[in-house]
Design a protein that fits this description.
CATH class of the largest domain: Alpha Beta
Strand content: 15-25%
CATH architecture of the largest domain: 3-Layer(aba) Sandwich
Oligomer: single chain
Number of helices: 9
Radius of gyration: 21 Å
Number of strands: 12
Shape: flat
Strand order of the largest sheet: 1-12-10-11
Distance between the termini: 10 Å
Structural class: alpha/beta
Length: 283
C-alpha cells in the first residue's frame, strides 16, 4: 500500500478565494453580459466553469461594449480602469490585495525618486501591471544575471519591488548584486505570505517523499515555482493540471508520495488526484 502525504499549505490562497467570491456576488446583481479581462485565475478547469456561468474571458476592452468587466486577481495597468470607466462599464476589481500592495509600493518608490526595479517575469500580467505604476524609468529583472554595472551606471538610488509569487532566494540574490552598484537601495519584499507558506511546505514535502505531484495550471507562475522548488530537491517531481495526466508507471519505486498544489488549484482537484493515485494500488 502506498502512503500519500499532502502539503500543509496547498491550493486556493486568499486572493483567489476573494476573486471567486466577488465574481459569484457580481453574477447575482451586476449588469450582463459578464467579461473577465484575461482568465480570472490561472487554472483552466476553474476558467471553464466560469464560462459555463456566463463569464467570457477577453484579451482587450475593445471586445467589450457594455455590461460588467472583471479585473482579474493579477491586476492591470491604471489606464485600463480609465478606459473601462469612459466606456461606461460596470467594474468588478478582483485584484489580489497583495498585488495591489506591490503596485502601490512601485508607485511610491517612483514618486520618491528611486529607479524602480521589479524582480519577476517580464511577460506575466501581474508584472506588466506593476510596471505601469513604477514610472517610465522602471524595468524588470528576471534573474540576477541581468544585473550589470553598465545597466546601473547612473542609478544612485534604486528601489526594489518583487512579483508576489517569486521565491525569496531569487530576491536575495538580486538584492545582493544590486548593492554593489548603487549608493542607496530600498527594498520591499512584496512576496505574499501564501506564496511563502506554500513554498516552505513544498520544500519539506519534497525532502520527505519518494515522488511529488504538483497540481496547477501550466500557465500559473506560483505553481511553476512550486514545481521548480520540488524538482531541485526531488527529481521525481511531476507537474500536472488534472488527474488524467497521471501515469501508473511513475509510482513503480515510490512508497511515499507527496501532493502539493498552486494557489489557483481548487480542493476538488487535489482530492481527485489523491483518489486516482490510490486507485492504482487497490486490490
Amino acid at each position: 500500500m502506498i502512503e500519500i502525504v499532502k502539503a500543509e499549505n496547498a491550493g486556493y490562497c486568499y486572493g483567489v478565494e476573494r476573486a471567486l467570491r466577488l465574481v459569484e456576488e457580481s453574477l447575482k446583481k451586476s449588469p450582463k453580459p459578464f467579461y473577465s479581462l484575461g482568465p480570472l485565475i490561472h487554472n483552466p478547469q476553474v476558467v471553464k466553469e466560469l464560462r459555463k456561468k456566463g463569464i467570457k474571458d477577453v484579451n482587450s476592452l475593445d471586445e467589450i461594449d457594455c455590461g460588467t468587466v472583471i479585473i482579474r486577481s493579477h491586476g492591470v495597468k491604471p489606464s485600463v480602469f480609465e478606459i473601462a470607466k469612459k466606456k461606461g462599464l460596470n467594474i468588478i476589481d478582483a485584484t489580489c490585495p497583495f498585488v495591489r500592495k506591490a503596485q502601490l509600493v512601485a508607485a511610491q518608490l517612483n514618486e520618491e525618486g528611486y529607479k524602480v526595479v521589479i524582480i519577476g517575469e517580464k511577460t506575466h500580467p501581474e508584472v506588466e501591471g506593476i510596471l505601469a505604476y513604477a514610472g517610465n524609468n522602471a524595468f524588470v529583472i528576471e534573474t540576477s544575471r541581468e544585473i550589470s554595472k553598465k545597466k546601473f551606471a547612473d542609478a544612485t538610488r534604486i528601489g526594489v519591488v518583487v512579483q508576489t509569487t517569486q521565491c525569496l532566494e531569487k530576491l536575495k540574490r538580486s538584492v545582493g548584486k544590486l548593492l554593489t552598484f548603487t549608493l542607496e537601495l530600498k527594498v520591499f519584499n512584496t512576496i505574499c505570505s501564501a506564496t511563502r507558506k506554500r513554498q516552505e511546505s513544498a520544500r519539506k514535502l519534497a525532502s520527505q517523499t519518494d515522488l511529488v505531484i504538483v497540481i496547477g495550471g501550466k500557465n500559473s507562475a506560483n505553481t511553476t515555482r512550486l514545481f521548480q522548488i520540488c524538482r531541485r530537491i526531488n527529481p521525481a517531481t511531476y507537474h500536472i493540471e488534472s488527474p488524467t495526466e497521471i501515469q501508473k508507471s511513475w509510482f513503480k519505486r515510490a512508497k511515499k508520495v507527496g501532493i502539493t498544489a498552486g494557489a489557483s488549484t481548487p480542493n476538488y482537484l487535489i482530492n481527485e488526484v489523491e483518489n486516482k493515485i490510490q486507485s492504482f494500488f487497490e486490490p
